[in-house]
From TrEMBL:
<dbReference type="InterPro" id="IPR010886">
    <property type="entry name" value="Hc1"/>
</dbReference>
<dbReference type="GO" id="GO:0003677">
    <property type="term" value="F:DNA binding"/>
</dbReference>
<comment type="similarity">
    <text>Belongs to the histone H1/H5 family. HCT subfamily.</text>
</comment>
<dbReference type="Pfam" id="PF07432">
    <property type="entry name" value="Hc1"/>
</dbReference>
<protein>
    <submittedName>
        <fullName>Histone H1</fullName>
    </submittedName>
</protein>
<dbReference type="GO" id="GO:0030527">
    <property type="term" value="F:structural constituent of chromatin"/>
</dbReference>
<comment type="function">
    <text>Might have a role analogous to that of eukaryotic histone proteins.</text>
</comment>
Amino acid sequence: MKKFEEVKNLVSALEADADKFYNKGNSAAGTRVRKGMQDLKNLAQAIRLEVQDTKNKA
C-alpha cells in the first residue's frame, strides 16, 4: 500500500504544474509534468510487478 500512497501523492503534486502548463502556457511546468508522469509510469510498473508476485505466491 505504501507505493499506492506514493502514486496518489505524486498525482496531487503534479496537479499545480499541469494547471500552469495547460491554462497558463508555462512550458517549464510542462517539462515537470512530463518528468512526473514518467516517474508515475515507473511506479505503476513496480506496483504491477509487486501485485503479480504476491498473487503468484498465493
